[in-house]
Design brief:
The protein is mainly alpha-helical. It is built from 15 helices and two strands. A two-stranded antiparallel sheet has the order 1-2.
Length: about 375
């Protein structure tokens, strides 16, 4: 009996997710934003662990930083109990010897990634420069492990300028490099710092754009301006295909990273990337993914989309068909219709930890935090 009930329920869910935009925009965006945010924050307050973290060990070391940042950015005060407890947990991860913020024990893994996230969290909570020294040491740690001359890589290497999951133990990728750059920005590192200039070299080698910045065969073959997961080791992707076609979450991460590194809208790299998202503007899926994988990384895509659009500094985006989109209203509606009754979010296509409602709810909140006009 249970198996027979699952099919209609799943079908109903699929139909609901594809409701026309008119029906999901019936509620004013500001009201929809507040209702969705309030429910999500209430869920996270209830799902917090006793030690102040969110999710299971050791993933809680990074997830907690994302949750804390999302709560603060959507209006929860750093002094409020859930955030204060979360920040205290992050403080316990400060490795004073190494400088990172991923722990003092053998469970400290994904150190660059976790440190980048926790820099963002402590920077958001940094009242009266309380965490200035900790953040400064963590930034130094990250910069020391950026792939560059000091680590035996010259700018013609496909590793050069990038950041990976765990220092010298992992090859660089665009996702980690994007978080690395965001951490530097959150910490107040000058845009003229060499770390940004080096990172731009790596970011360029992840773009499907044949130019002086990327001469990889796959870039010339595709040449559509999109971004793949990494240009390192001759190129690697996360689409389960071997064609190196770019996809939404990485393309928006690439555009955002270029902006942080000082690339303007008139630059050929930026024009080509914006051309790609103009052709693939959607919030129903992670665009560019094969149809069977179209929901993979959806919430990571949402929060990267929001950060990128915010960094572009435009209230609207005009797609390749000439349709002008209020991207904030579009994103609020797309997220709101996917919220569970208890306030949480969950990606039924569980890849890249999106089966964890704490992480996914935090991604949704982060995305929504960029949907309120400054």
């Amino acid at each position: 009996m249970r198996k027979r009930l699952l099919v209609p329920l799943a079908a109903f869910g699929a139909v609901f997710a594809l409701l026309p935009s008119e029906s999901i925009k019936a509620q004013p965006p500001a009201d929809q934003w507040k209702e969705t945010v309030d429910k999500a924050r209430e869920y996270l307050k209830k799902s917090q662990n006793e030690d102040g973290s969110w999710s299971a060990t050791p993933q809680n070391r990074g997830v907690t930083g994302i949750v804390v940042t999302s709560l603060i950015r959507t209006g929860t005060k750093p002094s409020d109990a859930p955030v204060a407890k979360g920040v205290a947990f992050i403080e316990s991860l400060v490795n004073t010897k190494e400088g990172h913020i991923a722990g003092n024990d053998a469970k400290a893994n994904l150190i660059n990634y976790t440190t980048s996230i926790n820099i963002m969290a402590l920077s958001a909570a940094n009242k009266d420069d309380k965490y200035k020294a900790v953040v400064g040491n963590a930034v130094k740690y990250l910069k020391d492990y950026q792939w560059d001359e000091a680590r035996g890589k010259k700018d013609d290497s496909d590793y050069y300028g990038g950041a990976g999951y765990a220092g010298d133990k992992s090859r660089p990728d665009l996702s980690n490099t994007a978080f690395f750059l965001e951490a530097l920005k959150a910490a107040g590192v000058s845009k003229d710092d060499p770390a940004f200039k080096k990172a731009l070299v790596f970011v360029g080698k992840c773009q499907n754009f044949k130019s002086e910045f990327n001469n990889a065969p796959w870039a010339e073959k595709n040449n559509d301006g999109s971004f793949i997961y990494t240009g390192a080791n001759g190129g690697e992707n996360r689409t389960d295909t071997d064609d190196f076609l770019g996809y939404g979450s990485m393309t928006y991460a690439g555009i955002k990273s270029m902006i942080y590194c000082g690339v303007g809208k008139d630059d050929p790299r930026m024009k080509k990337a914006l051309e790609w998202i103009g052709k693939h503007y959607t919030l129903d899926s992670n665009p560019g993914m094969p149809q069977k994988n179209s929901q993979r990384g959806l919430y990571y895509y949402y929060h990267t989309f929001a950060k990128c659009m915010n960094a572009l500094g435009e209230d609207t985006f005009t797609d390749a068909k000439g349709v002008k989109h209020d991207w904030r209203a579009d994103l609020i509606a797309a997220i709101a219709k996917r919220q569970k009754p208890d306030g949480s979010f969950l990606n039924e296509t569980d890849r890249w930890m999106e089966g964890d409602p704490n992480l996914v709810t935090a991604y949704a909140l982060l995305a929504l935090s960029y949907c309120k006009k400054p």
